[in-house]
Amino acid sequence: MKSKTLVVNEDSHKKTKLIKKKIEISTVILHLVLILGAAIMIFPFIWSITSSLKSVSQIFIVPPEFLPNPFVWSNYPDSLKAMPFGRAYWNSFYITVLIVGIQLITAAMAAYAFAKIRFPGVNLLFILFLATMMIPKQVTMVPTYMIMSKIGWLDTHLALIVPGALFNAFSVFLLRQFIMGIPNELEEAAVVDGANPLRIFWSVILPLIKPALAAVGIFSFMGTWNNFMEPLIYLSTPDLFTVPLMLNYFKGLYATDWGLMMAGSTISIIPVLIIYIIAQKHIIEGVALTGIKG
């Protein structure tokens, strides 16, 4: 009897070891795949940084060399001198801050209305609202341009700020999913205390959705800072140009100084990197909580 028990224990021990071994192998394979994916994703970014420290002849050398030899540090000051980047930085900065600030308020109010206020056709209206995300941006370019022309906003920053600040379906969707997870009892308690919907939104809802607001704010900041298409369509005066549009000026008709362009591109992403490093915890927290509550 004892011998049978020993045999059973040995078999169980062997099975456990085999399962652990399989799990370890699958974990190693998973990590290798993730590392490979991360390397592929980050390679263009690293390549642009190394290219910003090369001369044009080094960038196009065959076979390509990853590290600069020698390092051309002068690309950075030269790129700042070549174009009025100071003005472009200020334009991008204040446009981005205005759009993100106003959009957080308008998107949160719309999300609160879709999530908590019951009115006829709310679900149908929300579906129609979401459907706007499916429309390619190229489809709306011509009518939007005609509207801006009619109201006299062409070649002004209003053409960038107003539409971007007042309408963002993705932000509304993300915040709505988060607000739907907030218990109705909190609202009912506020109503009993005599609060109106605006007071409930300001004092109850907004403090509870800070992680989602942080995530939406970061996404909006990155999208607005890197926006190239709208400034290209609406702006024609160089003093009004944003950073992405100013970088486009490095492209010549017959030749392009890629070293200066890469240096300017690297400088342009510094604000986005700083914001992301500071707020990455809130981004992950906000997106994760939104997914759980949705």
Q: Please mark out the parts with pLDDT under 50 across 5 or more consecutive residues, or reply none.
A: none
How many β strands by DSSP? 0
Q: What's the average pLDDT? A: 83
Shape: flat
Question: How far is the first residue's CA from the last residue's CA?
Answer: 56 Å
What count of helical segments does DSSP give? 15
Round the Cα radius of gyration to an integer and report it: 27 Å
Major β-sheet annotation: none
Query: Could you state the order of secondary-structure elements as H and E?
Result: HHHHHHHHHHHHHHH
The share of residues in extended strands comes to: under 5%
Q: How would you portray this structure in words?
A:
- With 294 residues, this protein is mainly alpha-helical.
- Helix content is 76%, strand content 0%.
- The chain has helices spanning 2-51, 56-59, 75-82, 85-116, 122-131, 137-150, 158-166, 169-180, 184-192, 197-208, 210-225, 229-234, 243-247, 258-268, 270-293.
- Helix 3 packs across helix 14.
- The longest helix has 50 residues, at 2-51.
Topology summary:
Blueprint: H1 2-51, H2 56-59, H3 75-82, H4 85-116, H5 122-131, H6 137-150, H7 158-166, H8 169-180, H9 184-192, H10 197-208, H11 210-225, H12 229-234, H13 243-247, H14 258-268, H15 270-293
Helix pairs in contact: 3-14, 4-7, 4-8, 4-11, 8-11, 8-15, 11-15
Short description:
The chain is mainly alpha-helical and 294 residues long. Helices cover 76% and strands 0% of the residues.
